[in-house]
User: What shape does this take?
Amino acid sequence: MADFDDEVTSAELDGDDLYLISNKGAPRGRIVRATASAPSLATATEVVPQGPTVIEDMSRALDGFYLSIMDGGIHRLRRLDRGGRVTEIPLPFDGTISSVFTHHAEDGALVSLTGWLSPSGIWSVTPDGRVVDTGITPRPASM
Assistant: This one.
């Protein structure tokens, strides 16, 4: 499917579709789709071209792929649907996404998010793109 020189950094299998983040010729990353039954990066279809931001990781859920994006030192979250459309998911504050957790049979995601002035927390992303604090992570006392 791919060699070290292809610079594939992430892969997700969705039925017979294999989605890959490749940095070869696209240092900020691009997403391509190949078939799992006959995988070949040479014949893969580009789904998300390289843009001005860095595609760091993707995680598959029932409602699409959640993309962790680095934008000049700040993380962004986007969702790629199976039709190839990418939508921005507004986060409650600027910061760092340390992890995106999904399950292939469930919509939405859980995101570990930390801000410069906001403590680390686990946030839930609903299928309609709302981001809600789960309350799982204890908050420090207010001053």
Notes: The chain has a mean pLDDT of 91. Residues 1-51 form one domain. The chain has no helices and twelve strands.
